[in-house]
């Protein structure tokens, strides 16, 4: 590693640069990922700088005193294998402190992640298809600001920590659609679709059961027929994989969900689609 290298925190425009890099890597980020990600933790984004040039990026979003998630890890191709990425990773883990840290790791690098304390638990699999018009159930409607307390409560059953600021930004981002399944006024699941460089991604897709998940899944396709439609499904919920496969979605790649201190205590049976590979 050359002298003249240092690590600094990112500002909001810097995060936009990291998301642009993700696009070049083929990750197909959302059009508003930079501002919504930054809302999750505006101190949790880092860059490795060599003589004034950004050569590495990565996030370490701290959600609360017990949980954090690392992502957006990219080293510029011409600077790979020189130690800059590892230095950035050490800085991100130092920022996370004693929390349980999660990542969605590239499968071929699992052994590398294990050497720095991560343990693999299951795969998250990306499936995609061309959106088609589906059934619209009367229990499903777009969420409104008054629904936010119910979404906060439901989300906490499916995610390891509160993430209120992020959810506010995620639900209201331009070009997105957020829907909830309400039974006698009670929220039984919700899902968000966001526009990406190519097509749309669904995430999260949280629901009490597979039937409700499928109903939400259909509602998010009904107005984008013919466009690319992606869902990131957790392998530890077989019903989620079944949903993707019975809808004839194509599996395009997978990541290893890894943690440093064991599986978080959430209701995995309600998780039919994770929010993002970058933020968990």
Summarize the structure.
The protein has 280 residues and is α+β, with helices and mostly antiparallel strands. The protein has helices spanning 12-24, 33-40, 84-96, 110-115, 148-158, 164-172, 210-219, 238-246, and strands at residues 5-9, 45-50, 53-62, 67-75, 100-106, 119-130, 140-142, 177-183, 186-195, 200-207, 228-234, 250-259, 271-273.
Task: Provide tags for this entry.
280 residues; alpha+beta; 13-stranded mixed β-sheet; 13 strands
Itemize the secondary structure elements and their pairings.
Elements: E1 5-9, H1 12-24, H2 33-40, E2 45-50, E3 53-62, E4 67-75, H3 84-96, E5 100-106, H4 110-115, E6 119-130, E7 140-142, H5 148-158, H6 164-172, E8 177-183, E9 186-195, E10 200-207, H7 210-219, E11 228-234, H8 238-246, E12 250-259, E13 271-273
Parallel strand pairs: 4-5, 10-11
Antiparallel strand pairs: 1-2, 2-3, 3-4, 5-12, 6-11, 6-12, 7-8, 8-9, 9-10, 10-13
Helix pairs in contact: 1-2, 2-6
How is this structure best described in words?
By secondary structure, the chain is α+β, with helices and mostly antiparallel strands. It has eight helices and 13 strands. Strands 1, 2, 3, 4, 5, 6, 7, 8, 9, 10, 11, 12 and 13 form a 13-stranded mixed sheet that branches.
